[in-house]
Amino acid sequence: MFSGCGQQESANSRASWYDIFLPGRLRDHRVLQDAGRSRLRLTVGPWSHTSVGMGQVAFAEALEFGLPLARGEEPAERAPVRLFVMGEEKWRDFPSWPPPGYEPRRFHLQPGGALSPEQPSASSPDGYRYDPADPTPAVGGVRMAFGVKSGRVDNTALEARPDVLTCTTAVLDKDVEVIGDISAEIFFRSSLPCADVFVRLCDVDADGRSTNVCDGLTSLTDAERTSSAEVALWPTAYRFKRGHRIRVQISSGAFPRYNRNPGTGEPRAIATTLRAAHQQVFHDPAHPSAVILPTR
């Protein structure tokens, strides 16, 4: 949400980490930021688009920012970017989006369901069967529907499904802070030409409970050949605590957040035939699948 407040050089934007509009909000802010606009403010909280907290902060900040400008006065000083860092559960101020000092770091999928910065060793791909008649469900995350649980939820039941692969780091010996744009490169092959690749980043606590942080999906139309699926996940600000583990999920859907892929190439809204597919995810020196995290 942008508030122009009648001033050409002013913009006050609010979003949330589980907001369906988050990538666009951040992209717009960055365009204004790079153009040298003054009086820019960005606030991103831990909510979804329909959360009460989102509305409360939007109203409060509109008054705090907009009323002084409407009176010809300067609003109170504040950092240009204020983010709620999940995991740390704390509001923090930054000079820009994305914040400086966070460098992309590759965490590679490994044999045996492991995840680490090291290059993968020689190994066979992992596989699963995706059936659009029993599609992998959407659990929490980015949702824009009343009565549906969004945001951070327990992923235990989802990860127990045979159509969901997981790769997990060893227990962290120090905090790992991730703030910025998240992406994944997954070397993938399907028995059908049309397939989806869904990637989700999770935090596994000391009790083994897996909680979703962010995710994204991409669609392929030449999935019968092995290729790198480039997946843009939702941006985030998250601190993985010492004693926790970082986990990546790979599957082929999150229904009904994303329309299920029928596997036939038909338009999804009117498809009448559903075909199950056998999917493979590669993790070897020639196919180094990874999630890329901006860490400090």
General description of the model:
- The protein has 296 residues and is mainly beta.
- β11 and β12 form a beta hairpin.
Features:
40% strand, 296 residues, mainly beta, disordered N terminus, globular, seven-stranded antiparallel β-sheet, 3 helices, five-stranded mixed β-sheet
Task: Put the structure in a nutshell.
With 296 residues, the protein is mainly beta. Helix content is 12%, strand content 40%.
Q: Roughly what fraction of the amino acids lie in strands? A: 35-45%
Radius of gyration: 20 Å
Q: Tell me about the biggest sheet?
A: 7 strands, antiparallel
* Number of distinct beta strands: 16
Distance between the ends: 29 Å
Instruction: Please estimate the helix content.
Output: 10-25%
Mean pLDDT comes to 92
Assign an overall shape: globular
Compute the number of helices.
Answer: 3
Order of secondary-structure elements:
EEHEHEEEEEHEEEEEEEE
Task: Provide the structure class.
Answer: mainly beta
pLDDT below 50 for ≥5 consecutive residues: which ranges?
Answer: 1-8
Mind sketching the topology for me?
Blueprint: E1 2-3, E2 11-18, H1 22-34, E3 40-48, H2 52-70, E4 81-85, E5 90-94, E6 103-110, E7 114-116, E8 126-130, H3 156-159, E9 165-168, E10 176-190, E11 195-204, E12 210-220, E13 227-240, E14 245-251, E15 277-282, E16 290-295
Parallel strand pairs: 2-3, 3-4
Antiparallel strand pairs: 1-2, 4-5, 6-7, 6-16, 8-15, 9-14, 10-13, 10-15, 10-16, 11-12, 11-14
